[in-house]
């Protein structure tokens, strides 16, 4: 049996992509599968935490022993995450939130013609940055950073700007890393300048190591 090291803790995890529609059958998204966030939520539940998982559209089934909230857009995710974060000891934002959404969503399917179609995009709220601004005393905030260049520099900048305790940086150029894969290659950066490099591991194993690391932060 897994030691109940997170007993009595409320943990909030976000996962998956968001869908940003511009008509009822078309939307902007990214290839996130939700696997990393689902693995983290399931592992936290195994350790005895009370877990809320907020996920965008994925084909993964609801994990056992926790509450899954299914949303579609970034703005839906923001609403649910904001409310649940009020009570959470630990928030892990593993979702690949769309940075932009179409300015307008047509109520009916857009008819094609021979002309070009222009979709104007506007910025979505940065959910994690919002949580960082309103961080509760003692709350631990963990983010992800998917990068294709200057991995450590970009991740460090996000850690500081979003007021995080840890950031998990994946280098999307590495084989076995990032979106959709069953494995990931990550570096874990903390607020004190510490950088831990993990080898290529399953997302389940990364979830265990990350939660071990987070538990050790709590004791600091
Ligand atoms: O700035 P960037 O999108 O690379 O930051 C990634 C981190 O911020 C992830 O933890 C992601 O879940 C979160 N994020 C968010 N809202 C956004 C964009 C990213 O919470 N609109």
UniProtKB/TrEMBL annotation:
Biological process annotations from GO: coenzyme A biosynthetic process; pantothenate catabolic process
Positions of the UniProt region annotated as Phosphopantothenate--cysteine ligase: 11-220
Signal peptide: none
Keyword Metal-binding in record: yes
UniProt keyword list: Decarboxylase, Flavoprotein, FMN, Ligase, Lyase, Magnesium, Metal-binding, Multifunctional enzyme
UniProt remark on cofactor binding: Binds 1 FMN per subunit.
The reaction(s) this protein catalyses: (R)-4'-phosphopantothenate + L-cysteine + CTP = N-[(R)-4-phosphopantothenoyl]-L-cysteine + CMP + diphosphate + H(+); N-[(R)-4-phosphopantothenoyl]-L-cysteine + H(+) = (R)-4'-phosphopantetheine + CO2
Essential cofactor(s): Mg(2+); FMN
CC terms in the record's Gene Ontology section: phosphopantothenoylcysteine decarboxylase complex
Record-listed E.C. numbers: 4.1.1.36, 6.3.2.5
Any one GO molecular function term: phosphopantothenate--cysteine ligase activity
Source taxon at top rank: Bacteria
Binding residues for CTP: 99, 109, 125-128, 144, 158, 162
Domain DNA/pantothenate metabolism flavoprotein C-terminal stretches: 6-216
Record carries keyword Lipoprotein: no
Listed pathway(s): Cofactor biosynthesis; coenzyme A biosynthesis; CoA from (R)-pantothenate: step 2/5; Cofactor biosynthesis; coenzyme A biosynthesis; CoA from (R)-pantothenate: step 3/5
Family statement: In the C-terminal section; belongs to the PPC synthetase family.
Function: Catalyzes two sequential steps in the biosynthesis of coenzyme A. In the first step cysteine is conjugated to 4'-phosphopantothenate to form 4-phosphopantothenoylcysteine. In the second step the latter compound is decarboxylated to form 4'-phosphopantotheine.
Name recorded for this polypeptide: Coenzyme A biosynthesis bifunctional protein CoaBC
Organism whose genome encodes this protein: Desulfosoma caldarium
First and last residues shown, out of full length: 181 to 400 of 400
């Amino acid at each position: 049996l897994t030691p109940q090291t997170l007993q009595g803790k409320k943990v909030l995890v976000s996962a998956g992509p968001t869908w940003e529609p511009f008509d009822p059958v078309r939307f902007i998204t990214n290839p996130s599968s939700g696997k990393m966030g689902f693995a983290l939520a399931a592992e936290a539940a195994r350790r005895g935490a009370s877990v809320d998982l907020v996920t965008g559209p994925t084909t993964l089934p609801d994990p056992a022993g926790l509450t899954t909230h299914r949303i579609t857009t970034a703005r839906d995710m923001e609403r649910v995450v904001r409310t649940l974060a009020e009570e959470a000891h630990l928030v892990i934002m593993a979702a690949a939130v769309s940075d932009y959404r179409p300015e307008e969503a047509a109520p009916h399917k857009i008819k094609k013609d021979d002309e070009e179609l222009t979709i104007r995009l506007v910025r979505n709220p940065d959910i994690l940055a919002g949580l960082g601004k309103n961080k509760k005393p003692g709350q631990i905030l963990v983010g992800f950073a998917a990068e294709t260049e200057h991995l450590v520099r970009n991740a460090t900048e996000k850690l500081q700007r979003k007021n995080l305790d840890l950031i998990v940086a994946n280098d999307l150029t590495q084989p076995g890393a990032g979106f959709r894969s069953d494995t990931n290659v990550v570096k874990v950066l903390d607020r004190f300048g510490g950088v831990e490099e993990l080898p290529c591991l399953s997302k389940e194993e990364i979830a265990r190591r990350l939660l071990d690391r987070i538990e050790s932060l709590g004791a600091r």
